[in-house]
């Protein structure tokens, strides 16, 4: 019977037939289904009356209330997860995902064995916290700047698309007006040709209307060429603007990433200084603090400790460099693909339009040719 609860997820379920299913033999069968599927209208080909629904709700009220509470919690969790996914996608579109916190800093230490060992040294904990606080502030600056720049790129793209659509629509309307005017004359010319009995006059009218068709073709192609030139200028302007926005974004992000490297270099110097001082105290037997065994193992000589601090430093710089390279590469790739797609879309639009013009002109020309042949035969 509890498997019936699974059907609650189908919000538009109104008709259910379980006739012949062993569950239908259960004593509380109908009451249970009416209680747990309250939106059901028909059960086993019979309409459920309101009185039955009321009795079922009263009988199973405690179980339903408990179930609704679980469902609400589950739905809230699903909504929260969906909101987080959507938010992450927005951040990815701005190329600054996971920079709104300590993720990058934490990733620097996630695989840093030596750095985690050195964190046990006297004074390093405070130094590390100060480093992290400043580092996260820079990451937040990158994040907020990235979202603002994404909005600017979106506005630029939306404005461009609006301009393109307006230009295409205006051009189409001009073409439609010309075609409508032509078709009025086209019908009159065809009727006049049908009514003409003299061969000489017939040929003259056919020639005149062929000229009209050619003029229509030239006019439509001229309109299309004007649109191509207009859109080419619009696309070139957009391309310059979007590339300038991307270049500015990358330049400023690289400047902020350089600040992260400066912080890392400063931290490295301080950590190295503390490590060497600690080594000297250990060698002199003046170190009061108890260090874990694996940390003391680093302090056999100066070269060992310098290498440990250097390894930690190199790993941190690599993480910063990789995140910067990823951001720059993805941003440039997005810009390149966007511009390429816009150019390709315009080429395809032009080809479709030229094909439409040729098909229409061929159609009206065939009408004229077919009529001319039938009139000559007659």
From TrEMBL:
Name-wise, this protein is Leucine-rich repeat-containing
**What are the leading ranks of the lineage?**
Eukaryota, Metazoa, Chordata, Craniata, Vertebrata
Give any Gene Ontology cellular component: axoneme
The family database entries (InterPro entries) matched by this protein are listed as:
Cilia_flagella_integrity, LRR_dom_sf
Q: Per the database entry, which stretches of residues form a coiled coil?
A: 64-98, 221-248
List the subcellular locations: Cytoplasm, Cytoskeleton, Cilium axoneme
Q: Which UniProt keywords apply?
A: Cell projection, Cilium, Coiled coil, Cytoplasm, Cytoskeleton, Leucine-rich repeat, Repeat
The species this protein was found in: Lynx pardinus (Iberian lynx)
Q: State if Repeat is listed as a keyword.
A: yes
Q: Does the keyword Translocase apply?
A: no
């Amino acid at each position: 019977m509890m498997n019936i609860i699974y059907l609650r997820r189908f919000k538009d379920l109104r008709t259910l037939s379980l006739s012949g299913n062993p569950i239908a033999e259960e004593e509380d069968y109908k009451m249970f289904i009416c209680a747990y599927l309250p939106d059901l209208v028909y059960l086993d080909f019979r309409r459920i009356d309101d009185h039955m629904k009321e009795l079922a709700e009263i009988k199973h009220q405690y179980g339903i209330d408990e179930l609704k509470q679980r469902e609400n919690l589950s739905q809230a969790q699903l909504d929260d997860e969906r909101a987080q996914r959507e938010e992450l996608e927005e951040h990815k579109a701005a190329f600054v995902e996971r920079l709104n916190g300590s993720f990058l800093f934490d990733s620097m230490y996630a695989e840093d064995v030596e750095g985690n060992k050195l964190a046990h040294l006297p004074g390093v904990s405070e130094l590390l916290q100060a480093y992290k606080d400043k580092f996260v502030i820079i990451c937040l600056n990158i994040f907020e700047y990235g979202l603002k720049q994404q909005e600017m790129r979106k506005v630029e793209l939306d404005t461009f698309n609006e301009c393109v659509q307006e230009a295409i629509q205006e051009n189409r309307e001009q073409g439609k007006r010309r075609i409508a005017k032509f078709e009025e004359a086209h019908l009159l010319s065809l009727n006049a040709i049908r009514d003409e009995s003299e061969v000489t006059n017939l040929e003259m009218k056919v020639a005149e209307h062929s000229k009209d068709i050619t003029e229509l073709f030239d006019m439509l192609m001229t309109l299309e060429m004007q649109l191509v030139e207009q859109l080419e200028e619009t696309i070139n302007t957009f391309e310059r603007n979007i590339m300038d926005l991307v270049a500015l974004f990358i330049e400023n992000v690289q400047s902020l990433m350089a600040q992260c490297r400066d912080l890392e270099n400063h931290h490295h110097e301080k950590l190295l200084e503390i490590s060497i001082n600690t080594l000297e105290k250990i060698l002199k037997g003046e170190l009061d603090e108890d260090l874990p065994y694996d940390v003391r193992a680093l302090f056999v000589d100066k070269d060992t400790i310098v290498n440990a601090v250097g390894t930690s430093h190199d790993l941190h710089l690599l993480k910063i460099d990789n995140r910067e390279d990823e951001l720059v590469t993805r941003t440039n790739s997005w810009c390149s693909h966007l511009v390429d797609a816009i150019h390709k879309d315009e080429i395809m639009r032009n080809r479709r339009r030229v094909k439409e013009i040729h098909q229409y002109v061929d159609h009206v020309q065939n009408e004229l040719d077919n009529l001319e042949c039938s009139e000559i035969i007659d």
